[in-house]
Design a protein that fits this description.
There is one protein chain. The protein has 477 residues and is α/β, with parallel strands linked by helices. The protein has a domain of 314 residues: Alpha-Beta Barrel (TIM Barrel). The protein is 45% helix and 12% strand. It is built from 18 helices and 20 strands. It has an eight-stranded parallel beta sheet with strand order 15-13-11-10-9-6-18-17. It starts with 9 loop residues before the first helix and ends with a helix.
């Protein structure tokens, strides 16, 4: 049976829910989007326009939860790559919003460029374990002009053919983005059915639904765009000073935003996606590798399952600034509990320096760690065919099982994990190979993937149509 983990018992989860309802009804959340407040007022929430605080009666929250679909898929341009939510599968989402990359020569951080972003996007398109895109180098791609956004969209959709989980930064760009989506994926009916794009919403901790980015999402209403709701409370700074209260705050932020999404478009698909973290008690800075993150994010996954919603969990982060022993053990330890809690999606590969630095090589090592943890989750299978009583009876005491057909069969099954990275040979072989380092092996794999992988191109007709739309966008700027 699969290996499982439990952080919260049933009473704990019920308490989180009940205390959340109490906070949302009595204290409320500040909602900085005017149109959002209007949607919530019509849905039955109590809106104070002077303070912008919205209070949520229990009935509003419970109705909103009931309206959320529990089963849906996230589509993709690549055939056969739809991701079924709540179907018992787990895939990776690249970590987002770094401001720098690891320089290959010095090993130090340098500003990320558009070329870095483009090669990173092609890299994750080549890795099967990564099923979704998030912008991993935000400062390298986002400028103020519509034309720069348009070029980013074109390059994104032509370089990554799996599911896109991203967003737009300004509601004024929504009409243009809708045109691009239709060129790439088909008409609005097709997009509503296939969900090839989902929106990431990040409520601001503590207890604020911010304005411009939420307005950009609301400008997409009517398209049935799935929404991943990802508050990022920091225990001890933008969240209270212990684990369970940080989870409680995050749950308030997810459910209040969920209510807004359902008020605006009842039945819109929602992914429960809190990213819980803490500060370093010595410095007050975000502690990207703190072990408490694994505990909190596993608990967050359990709360998403409590509501029956698809879940996006977080892990693999590190506070270290370079790939090495610290970043490897911090990333693995912070991911193992969330993986065993088994979300639909796990975000985290590729980040160093508390998510401020993108590392191509860490993408590779994180994916290998994920493969190991996925094997842990599979657990020990105990169906009748696995016991091999007859094999044990037929092999003489003191002999071995190397020559048994069953041994060969199971060596080529999921019972045996076969690593893609690292040293797994004799000492003499390791010396002969020049004592290879894991970082060098990861770098070679990056180079190999980028040299050999060709993303699925957009059709010539789509490219011509995008040319026409982009030319029109330039004239209107």
């Amino acid at each position: 049976m699969p290996t499982t983990v439990q952080i919260l018992n049933d009473r704990d989860k019920t308490q989180v829910h009940e205390r959340t309802l109490n906070i949302l009804e009595r204290s409320g959340v500040r909602v900085d989007t005017e149109i959002g407040r209007e949607y919530l007022r019509k849905a039955g929430a109590d809106v104070d326009e002077n303070t912008k605080v919205v209070r949520f009666p229990r009935s509003v929250v419970e109705t909103s939860l009931k309206q959320c679909p529990k089963d849906f898929s996230l589509g993709a341009r690549r055939p056969g790559w739809d991701l079924e939510m709540n179907a018992g599968e787990c895939t990776l989402l690249i970590d987002g919003s770094a401001i720098g990359v690891v320089d290959q020569e010095t090993g130090l951080r340098k500003p990320g460029t558009y070329d870095h972003w483009h090669s990173a996007t092609r890299l994750i398109d080549a890795i099967d374990e990564i099923g979704l895109y998030w912008n991993m180098l935000i400062d390298a791609t986002v400028e103020s002009s519509l034309d720069s956004h348009f070029q980013y969209w074109r390059d994104l959709f032509s370089s990554f053919s799996k599911h896109i989980q991203d967003g737009i930064l300004d509601s004024a760009y929504a009409p243009w983005y809708k045109e691009v989506l239709q060129v790439v994926f088909g008409d609005i009916t097709t997009i509503r059915r296939d969900h090839p794009f989902s929106f990431m919403l990040n409520p601001q901790s503590p207890l604020v639904i911010e304005g411009p980015y939420t307005d950009a999402y609301l400008a997409m209403i009517g398209w049935d765009i799935p929404v991943a709701i990802m508050p990022m409370p920091l225990m001890g700074a933008t969240a209270p000073g212990n684990l369970i209260s940080t989870l409680l705050l995050a749950n308030c932020e997810v459910l209040s935003t969920l209510c807004l999404v359902q008020a605006a478009e009842p039945g819109a698909p929602v992914i429960y996606a809190p990213n819980l973290a803490s500060i370093n008690p010595r410095t007050g800075m975000y502690a990207g590798g703190a072990i408490e993150q694994g505990l909190m994010n596993a608990a967050g996954i359990e709360m998403g399952r409590y509501y029956g919603l698809p879940v996006l969990g977080s892990g693999m982060g590190s506070g270290c600034y370079a790939l090495g022993v610290q970043s490897t053990y911090e990333g693995a330890l912070n991911a193992i509990l969330p993986i065993l809690a088994w979300p639909d999606i796990l975000v985290g590969p590729g980040s160093l320096g508390s998510s401020t630095i993108f590392s191509y090589e860490k993408v590779i090592t994180d994916v290998e760690a994920y493969r190991l943890m996925r094997r842990l989750h599979t657990g020990i299978q105990t169906d009748e065919s696995k016991w091999l009583d007859e094999v044990i009876r037929n092999v003489k005491p003191g002999s071995d099982y190397l020559g048994q057909r069953s041994t060969k069969t199971y060596m080529h099954s999921e019972e045996w994990f076969k690593p893609d990275l690292g040293t797994h040979s004799s000492y003499d072989r390791w010396i002969k190979d020049g004592r290879p380092e894991l970082q060098d092996e990861a770098r070679e794999k990056v180079d190999q993937l980028l040299a050999n992988h060709e993303p699925i191109p957009l059709s010539e007709e789509a490219e011509r149509e995008l040319d026409r739309i982009q030319a029109r966008a330039k004239m209107e700027e």
